[in-house]
Each structure stands twice: as C-alpha cells, then as structure tokens.
C-alpha cells in the first residue's frame, strides 16, 4: 500500500468515468451516500444536484460533505476527500458545469443534451473544497 501524492490522487480521481460516492448527513443524523458525476476544478471538486434532493438539502443545511472515489479492481485504490461546500444557483454557471461534467461521463456528442437537462432552475452547482484527503494506492499489494 502506498500513499498517493497530490498529483497522483488528482490524476486518479480524474481518470475515465469513475463516479464519486458522496456522503452527507440527513437532518435526523442518518448518513446518506449516493454516486455522483464530478470534475476537478483547481483545488475543488465540482458537481451538480437538485436543490430539493436529499443531498441538496443536506449540503445546504450542513455545508460539508465527503467524497470517495475508488478503483474496484485489484490491487484496489481509493481517494476520500472531505471539506466544506459552496453552493451556487446561478443557472448559467450550473449549465456550463453540467455540460462539462456530462462530456466526461456521456461523451462530447451528448454533453449539450445532458447540460440542458441538468442545468436548469432548481439545480445547484456544488464546489467541495477538500480540507482532508486520504489517498491510498495498491491497498491489496
């Protein structure tokens, strides 16, 4: 097992179409974990979600989240990122990022379609600014 450098974990979470598993806390204290599409933007993890979804309400209420990105194939690696979130409801910004995120996961030919679907009023743009990073490679080696 090896600890990834900053450059290594950034490359790892940006590779291919790995989804992130976002953890938030419900109002009653129960955990909530869901897969998300995301991109890195400098030091931030950027994704969008419905403002009235469980995660949207939790992010607004607590202002924090954790994200895990993993490789489920041997020798197994993972990165967890935790920190505060900033939320934006600016529709133009949400749509721009929704389109960029869609290009990663659905391909350039469908990016506009998904950007239009996900970049609408009622959606939030979320920026997770990691203050804690755990990044381990080759866990089973």
UniProtKB/TrEMBL annotation:
Gene3D superfamilies: Electron Transport, Fmn-binding Protein, Chain A. Keywords: Oxidoreductase. It comes from the Bacteria. This is Pyridoxamine 5'-phosphate oxidase N-terminal domain-containing protein. InterPro entries: F420-binding_dom_put (IPR019920), F420H2_bilvrd_red/Heme_oxyg (IPR052019), Pyridox_Oxase_N (IPR011576), Split_barrel_FMN-bd (IPR012349). GO terms for molecular function: coenzyme F420 binding; oxidoreductase activity, acting on the CH-CH group of donors. The lineage of its organism: Bacteria, Bacillati, Actinomycetota, Actinomycetes, Frankiales. GO terms for cellular component: cytosol. Residues 7-133 form the Pyridoxamine 5'-phosphate oxidase N-terminal domain.
